[in-house]
Write a structure and sequence with these properties.
Distance between the termini of chain B: 14 Å
Number of helices of chain B: 9
Largest interface: A-B, 59 and 56 residues
Shape of chain B: globular
Mean pLDDT of chain B: 83
Number of domains of chain A: 1
Order of helices and strands of chain B: HHHHHHHHH
Largest sheet of chain B: none
Strand order of the largest sheet of chain A: 1-2
Oligomer: heterodimer
Low-confidence stretches of chain A: 1-5, 211-215, 220-232
Strand content of chain A: under 5%
Helix content of chain A: 55-70%
Radius of gyration of chain A: 18 Å
Strand content of chain B: under 5%
Structural class of chain B: mainly alpha
Radius of gyration of chain B: 18 Å
Distance between the termini of chain A: 22 Å
Order of helices and strands of chain A: HHHHHHHEEHH
Largest sheet of chain A: 2 strands, antiparallel
Helix content of chain B: over 70%
Shape of chain A: globular
Number of helices of chain A: 9
Number of strands of chain A: 2
């Protein structure tokens, strides 16, 4: 199993491990560095992070299930477009659901809701896991990765909301001072960088050195990656 | 004319796709190590953004919108972009090998770059006409290229400096991106 890259699926691990691994050990954002765009963009508030995380989890679980069921039907050569269509279908579904039931969240997530389609976590898990494993494991993997993603977004949203606005989940914390920069784009980069550093310190391991091509779901199609076997 | 200029400048500087809107972060962090690859990736993104806008605009305006199917824009746009990137790669490889050498390797990476899908959806949601859509895409692409090039310079300095072990690699890169992003905050309210 390669750290920092898409992990190779193992057959013998227990079902519980499929869920637990996504939370810390193979956390999609903090370890594999996937799905950074929504992680940075929507986490100005803890509740937005939570909503985005749950929406992504829904799409991830559904697409993992469908792709693992269809992997014998889909020809290998055109699998990426097929996966993208399946994922985009579920994204349209969640767009409708949020628009109908949680319109406030729908408008605050804005453009990043349709962009779940190109979230590398979902395509990455489809390619690396769901296309090689059965339905049950794929669903569990989707749930685990989804929980890991949601927790990360919730953590980032909490930090940025508390320091940036002095409130948490809408509750005023009466802080003596707030730093508006935390809810600005610059704060997003900063908080994610510090969280990754802190996690590395706690886990006592070397941080991921590069955003490797190995994380990219397109790596298999990429001539540079195949030739040099490393990043551009 | 003035309106087009404002759209171009705000897409490029004020609402920079990478540093303000957080789109295409993966390629921003992955390909900004060297100046050459940053420039190549940037030019490839400009090319795909402009062509994707040319392809998606008529389909959205003449097929999806009149039939009340605009909720299908996500699926349609991503399919068009994936198809276009595939075809463009094949054509360029056969017809213009020199261009393929410069841009070709970046093309497959662009399908899942959310900046490309993002700009197509943004154009559709804002109700821009063809000209405004093209200008907006051009601005977004230029902004992406600018951010990549600036950041490749910053990163070469980071690589040469002594950083605490915990912050080495991705954490320090992200914190540097945060500082570059602060500098782009200075453009806020400049063109309106």
């Amino acid at each position: 199993m390669k750290r920092g890259g898409i992990p190779v699926a193992k057959k013998q691990v227990s079902h519980a491990y499929e869920i637990i691994k996504g939370i810390i050990k193979e956390n999609p954002v903090l370890v594999s560095l996937l799905g950074m765009c929504p992680a940075l963009a929507v986490t100005t508030m803890a509740s937005n992070g939570l909503g985005m995380g749950l929406a992504t989890t829904f799409v991830l679980v559904c697409s993992n299930a469908v792709i693992s069921l269809l992997n014998r039907v889909i020809p290998k050569e055109v699998r990426l477009p097929c996966y993208i269509v399946i994922i985009a279908g579920f994204v349209t579904l969640i767009e409708f659901l949020l628009k109908g039931y949680v319109p406030a969240l729908y408008s605050s997530l804005g453009l990043f809701l349709p962009l779940i389609t190109v979230n590398c976590i979902i395509l990455g898990r489809a390619e690396a896991f769901a296309s090689k494993n059965g339905v049950a494991r794929s669903v569990l993997d989707g749930i685990g990765m989804g929980i890991g993603f949601t927790l990360t977004l919730f953590l980032m949203g909490s930090v940025r909301e508390i320091f940036g606005t002095g409130a948490w989940m809408g509750i005023n914390l009466h802080l003596p001072a707030t730093l508006t920069v935390f809810i600005m784009p610059a704060g997003g980069f900063f908080v994610l960088g510090v969280i990754i550093a802190v996690i590395n310190k706690i886990a006592n391991k070397k941080p991921p050195q590069t955003v490797g091509c190995a994380n990219c779901p397109n790596a298999l199609n990429c001539p540079t990656f195949n030739k040099e076997g490393e990043t551009l | 004319m003035k309106e087009l200029f404002i759209i171009l400048m705000s897409a490029m500087l004020v609402e920079n796709f990478v540093l303000t809107k957080f789109m295409g972060i993966c390629s921003f962090l992955g390909v900004s190590k060297k100046f050459d690859s940053a420039l190549g990736m940037g030019l490839a993104v400009i090319f795909v953004m402009l062509s994707a806008t040319l392809c998606t605009y008529p389909i959205y305006t003449f097929i999806l919108e009149p039939n009340g199917l605009d909720y299908l824009r996500g699926i349609c746009f991503i399919l068009i972009i994936a198809l276009f990137v595939q075809i463009a790669e094949m054509v360029i490889r056969k017809k213009i090998p020199s261009l393929y050498k410069a841009l070709g390797v970046y093309l497959p990476l662009i399908t899942t770059n959310c900046a490309v899908l993002g700009v197509a959806i943004l154009n559709a949601d804002n109700g821009y006409g063809l000209l405004k859509s093209l200008v907006n895409s051009l601005g977004a692409g230029l902004g992406f290229t600018l951010a990549l090039i600036i950041f490749s310079g910053v990163r070469s300095r980071i690589d040469a400096s002594d950083i605490p072990a915990t912050f080495k690699g991705v954490p320090s890169t992200l914190i540097a991106a945060s500082i570059v992003s602060v500098s782009f905050m200075g453009f806020a309210g400049m063109f309106s």
